[in-house]
Design brief:
heterodimer, A: 375 residues, 2 domains, 12 helices, 70% helix, B: 167 residues, mainly alpha, 6 helices, 72% helix
């Protein structure tokens, strides 16, 4: 009986925390972006909105709940109504495996991080369902872009994900945290960067915001949604942003590890949320400061730079790691200089290749430009 | 036989999976069929979880939902109008019925023929990911078939690139 109570309690917490954090994070995002754009952002909508309007999102939530749900005339009703449910479910299920502390984790399945990976197609399918069932040109354009972008950015994301797994020797998120005597971002800066960029594309934040591109295609795949159904997509987006940040913090920034966490285990969640929040802030800075890339640029960037780089990193790190291990560097700290050197080498080679390609492209451009004068 | 949690869960999931499969076959719109196919895949993955092999469940979802179904959606996106209301073509129904019936018959025959082990091949505590990984890449295990499979995939990839290349 007790174990069932624990399950129920766990699932309640896992249901409430993401929504509550999304309410706060939406406020944070609006404030941060407002500051970047030299505005005040939400400040006061009546005296009850609290100092700095911290209850603004709550007011918005209440308002959005009272709005009418409009289902377009030609829409496929069942799929149209199911899509917001799928996107929220996929967003919430990730929280089950995020390790907030040494013992504070909903569940630690042996497939661990792979479970997180498996959930991404469901987010994608909720977009496809929304875009297809709406019978709207903007929605289907957004869906095409979302599919192209998410399917291709999965690849560098998973490839760079393999490196922390390789250094840990386990898929379990808890073991991934325990293995980080040094945060993996310090040992594997390039894979961490690739993962971060691919993750930004997966959650559809600027500069990879082609799926909803509000200046071009209204709101992309959820153009036709109104009221709380729109709210479901909006909430799920923020929950996804934050859970992706938490996963990044778990994989590359040491998760719940931090000073004094051995003495006071309650500090674990604090460190994790702090790190995750920093990553989230970077996402929001991107949102406020980045231009929107064109879809072909996004795909070119993925297939011609990120994927080959991630593959090269995988091979090089696997070799160097094994070599260092055989030469007696059995701990991660001892192998850190080796791995860093490997990162540096690959980084310099990549930079060289990029410069070469750039120079050649420039020469071709110049040649084209001067051609009329030469005749 | 008493019904424990496992049995009840199995019955419910199996019934839902079969129902989803039937609905998929009977669905008039191809996009509905794909969505129902995903439901079938999820049901099969849930059966794997009940068997205690979460890795297989993850692989099932990863390959079939993340790969095959996305590919199917991409295919209908680029070929038949994504937004179109056209129902699936009925021309090939009889041929499909013959193929499906023969596959069903063959599988049933096979299931009845094979002497299924009633005991687990590997004791439960050993039945984990590390063992699977070691068996796949050790020389005594399946290293050669494993590498051959990856070589095959590589050749397929090159072939696809060659066909799709702009000339």
């Amino acid at each position: 009986m007790e174990i069932y109570l624990r399950y129920i309690l766990n699932s309640l917490i896992l249901l409430i925390i993401p929504f509550a954090s999304a309410l706060i994070l939406i406020w944070v995002a609006r404030k941060v972006i407002a500051r970047i754009q030299d505005r005040l952002g939400p400040n006061s909508s009546g005296s009850w909105a609290g100092p700095y309007a911290i209850f603004q999102t709550l007011a918005d939530a209440v308002k959005i709940l009272t709005k009418e749900l409009i289902i377009p005339e030609g829409a496929d009703r069942v799929v149209f109504l199911a899509a917001p449910a799928v996107v929220v479910a996929a967003a919430l299920l990730v929280w089950l495996v995020i390790p907030f502390g040494p013992t504070l984790q909903g569940m630690d399945p042996d497939i661990g991080i792979f479970y997180v990976v498996v959930l991404t197609p469901f987010t994608l399918f909720s977009m496809i369902m929304a875009g297809w069932s709406s019978r709207n040109k903007y929605a289907s354009l957004g869906t095409f872009r979302a599919v192209a972008q998410m399917v291709s950015y999965e690849i560098p994301q998973f490839l760079s994900l393999l490196l922390p797994i390789m250094l840990t020797g386990s898929l379990s998120l808890q073991r991934l945290v325990l293995a980080q005597q040094l945060p993996f971002a310090l040992v594997l800066p390039i894979p961490a960067l690739i993962y971060f960029l691919a993750m930004t594309a997966e959650v559809g934040r600027l500069p990879f915001e082609q799926a909803e591109a509000d200046a071009e295609i209204v709101a992309g795949y959820f153009t036709e949604y109104s009221g709380m159904m729109f709210g479901a997509f909006y909430l799920a987006e923020f929950i996804n942003n934050f859970s992706a940040s938490l996963i990044f913090a778990t994989l590359f920034l040491g998760g719940w590890r931090g000073p004094w966490v051995e003495q006071v285990p309650a500090l674990g969640p604090v460190w994790l949320v702090l790190k995750g929040f920093l990553v989230f802030l970077v996402l929001m800075l991107f949102w406020g400061a980045m231009p929107r890339l064109r879809i072909d640029h996004i795909l070119n960037f993925n297939w011609k730079l990120l994927t080959p780089l991630a593959l090269a990193m995988l091979i090089v790190i696997a070799w160097v790691n094994r070599l260092a291990f055989d030469l007696g560097a059995t701990t991660l700290a001892a192998r850190a200089p080796w791995l860093l050197l490997a990162n540096l080498g690959v980084g310099i080679v990549t930079w060289g290749i990029l410069r070469l390609v750039d120079r050649r492209a420039k020469r071709r451009r110049d040649a084209q430009r001067f051609e009329p004068f030469l005749e | 036989m008493t019904l424990g949690f496992g049995q009840i869960a199995f019955l419910v999931i199996a019934a839902l999976t079969v129902a989803a499969a039937l609905a998929m076959v009977l669905a008039r719109h191809i996009f509905h069929a794909i969505l129902l196919m995903i439901a079938v895949f999820v049901g099969v993955a849930a059966l794997y979880v009940l068997l205690g092999v979460s890795f297989m469940a993850g692989m099932q979802l990863f390959i079939y939902v993340g790969g095959v179904s996305v590919l199917a959606v991409l295919a209908i996106m680029v070929t038949r109008g994504f937004m179109g209301d056209r129902p699936r073509p009925a021309r090939s129904t009889y041929g499909a019925a013959v193929v499906a019936a023969s596959v069903f018959g063959g599988l049933t025959w096979l299931i009845l023929q094979v002497p299924w082990p009633s005991e687990p091949l590997v004791p439960a505590p050993q039945n984990d990911l590390a063992v699977l990984g070691q068996v796949l890449v050790s020389r005594a295990g399946y290293a050669v078939p494993f590498e051959l499979a990856s070589l095959l995939l590589f050749v397929v990839l090159l072939g696809a690139l060659y066909i799709a290349r702009e000339r």
